[in-house]
Design a protein that fits this description.
79 residues; mainly alpha; 4 helices
Length: 79
Amino acid sequence: MPKPGPRITYKYSDHFKAIAVRLSQLPGVEIQDVAESLYIHPFMLSRWRKEMREGKIMGKGADVDRAVAYELKELRRIK
C-alpha cells in the first residue's frame, strides 16, 4: 500500500547517470552492488544503461575514479 502524502521524485544529472553506468560496466562489478552503493534502485540503473546505449545519455567526460572502482571490486570480493 502506498504511503500517504506527496511522492518524492529525485532528479539526477546526466553526469551522475553516466558515472553510475561506467561503474556498472567495470569487470567483476554487478549492477546491484553499484545501485546499492549509490542508493538507487537497480532497475533505474538498468534503465540508464539502456539510455546510454541508445545515446540519450552522453558519457563523455564521465571518468571513473580508480579508488572508487577498486572499492567496489573489494566489496564484491568480500561479499
